[in-house]
């Protein structure tokens, strides 16, 4: 599975060119799943251009409550209205810049599943945590927050995305071996509660995934795809990563 995270980029004309290029470029790729998560104002455009293609679309965030006096927030059903299959939950930028806690992320995961959207649940450590040697401790804490809320059966309704925060947008991504080790740890921790769920859940890798390293990363046994940032904004690069997955 390959998911593009457009972050806070785009405009109507630029989006149209990129989306139409992706539809054409991915038309014959049928051996993996493909999606783009676009800024909320452009969900209508993604729906219009991608409907009927082999590319799904989704939101980048949503509120943990289904409605209420939360000015500026996006309710889960609003994403449903635009045909979203996915929503990114717990991205490191939301955790750091918007102070989203583990319990808040877990609540968002639960409500996404409730309304029929598959959450893409991000987890990963900062550079300070990585250098302190507590990667597994941090990832376990983030994972356990969701597991304790929805259980392994609930977790199975989503997709996981391990993103070493120190690699996001830096071009200094984790090596395939480093990434594989953490992915294996995540899968093993899920297996402690439910081996079947652990065997089938998709665990994507994020953080400076690019054309040069995509094939190596995707060849690792516990890496089931990629959550792509910068490279998802360039049609040729995103298509090449999807080609590697295909």
From TrEMBL:
<dbReference type="InterPro" id="IPR035990">
    <property type="entry name" value="TIM_sf"/>
</dbReference>
<dbReference type="InterPro" id="IPR000652">
    <property type="entry name" value="Triosephosphate_isomerase"/>
</dbReference>
<dbReference type="InterPro" id="IPR022896">
    <property type="entry name" value="TrioseP_Isoase_bac/euk"/>
</dbReference>
<comment type="pathway">
    <text>Carbohydrate metabolism; erythritol degradation.</text>
</comment>
<dbReference type="GO" id="GO:0006096">
    <property type="term" value="P:glycolytic process"/>
</dbReference>
<protein>
    <recommendedName>
        <fullName>Triosephosphate isomerase</fullName>
        <ecNumber>5.3.1.1</ecNumber>
    </recommendedName>
</protein>
<dbReference type="GO" id="GO:0005829">
    <property type="term" value="C:cytosol"/>
</dbReference>
<comment type="pathway">
    <text>Carbohydrate degradation; glycolysis; D-glyceraldehyde 3-phosphate from glycerone phosphate: step 1/1.</text>
</comment>
<feature type="binding site">
    <location>
        <begin position="5"/>
        <end position="7"/>
    </location>
    <ligand>
        <name>substrate</name>
    </ligand>
</feature>
<keyword id="KW-0324">Glycolysis</keyword>
<dbReference type="GO" id="GO:0019563">
    <property type="term" value="P:glycerol catabolic process"/>
</dbReference>
<comment type="similarity">
    <text>Belongs to the triosephosphate isomerase family.</text>
</comment>
<feature type="active site" description="Proton acceptor">
    <location>
        <position position="163"/>
    </location>
</feature>
<feature type="binding site">
    <location>
        <position position="208"/>
    </location>
    <ligand>
        <name>substrate</name>
    </ligand>
</feature>
<keyword id="KW-0312">Gluconeogenesis</keyword>
<comment type="subunit">
    <text>Homodimer.</text>
</comment>
<dbReference type="GO" id="GO:0004807">
    <property type="term" value="F:triose-phosphate isomerase activity"/>
</dbReference>
<keyword id="KW-0413">Isomerase</keyword>
<comment type="function">
    <text>Involved in the gluconeogenesis. Catalyzes stereospecifically the conversion of dihydroxyacetone phosphate (DHAP) to D-glyceraldehyde-3-phosphate (G3P).</text>
</comment>
<feature type="binding site">
    <location>
        <position position="169"/>
    </location>
    <ligand>
        <name>substrate</name>
    </ligand>
</feature>
<dbReference type="InterPro" id="IPR013785">
    <property type="entry name" value="Aldolase_TIM"/>
</dbReference>
<keyword id="KW-0963">Cytoplasm</keyword>
<dbReference type="InterPro" id="IPR020861">
    <property type="entry name" value="Triosephosphate_isomerase_AS"/>
</dbReference>
<dbReference type="Pfam" id="PF00121">
    <property type="entry name" value="TIM"/>
</dbReference>
<feature type="active site" description="Electrophile">
    <location>
        <position position="91"/>
    </location>
</feature>
<dbReference type="GO" id="GO:0006094">
    <property type="term" value="P:gluconeogenesis"/>
</dbReference>
<dbReference type="GO" id="GO:0046166">
    <property type="term" value="P:glyceraldehyde-3-phosphate biosynthetic process"/>
</dbReference>
């Amino acid at each position: 599975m390959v998911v593009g995270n457009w972050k806070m980029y785009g405009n109507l004309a630029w989006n149209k060119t990129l989306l139409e290029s992706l539809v054409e470029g991915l038309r014959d790729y049928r051996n993996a799943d493909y999606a783009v998560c676009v800024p909320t104002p452009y969900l209508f455009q993604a729906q219009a251009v991608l409907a009927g293609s082999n590319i799904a679309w989704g939101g980048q965030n949503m509120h943990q409550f289904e409605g209420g006096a939360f000015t500026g927030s996006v309710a889960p059903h609003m994403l449903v209205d635009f045909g979203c299959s996915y929503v990114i939950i717990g991205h490191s930028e939301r955790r750091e810049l918007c102070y989203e806690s583990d319990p808040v992320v877990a609540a968002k995961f639960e409500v996404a599943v409730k309304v029929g959207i598959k959450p893409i649940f991000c987890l990963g450590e900062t550079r300070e945590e990585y250098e302190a040697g507590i990667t597994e401790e941090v990832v376990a804490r983030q994972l356990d927050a969701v597991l304790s809320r929805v259980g392994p059966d609930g977790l199975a309704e989503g997709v996981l995305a391990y993103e070493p925060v120190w690699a996001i947008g830096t071009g200094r991504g984790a090596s395939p071996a480093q990434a594989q080790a953490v992915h294996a740890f995540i899968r093993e921790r899920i297996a402690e509660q439910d081996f079947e769920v652990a065997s089938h859940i998709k665990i994507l890798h994020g953080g400076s995934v690019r054309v040069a390293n995509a094939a190596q990363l995707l060849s690792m046994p516990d890496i089931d795809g990629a959550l792509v940032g910068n490279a998802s904004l360039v049609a040729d690069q995103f298509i090449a990563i999807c080609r590697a997955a295909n």
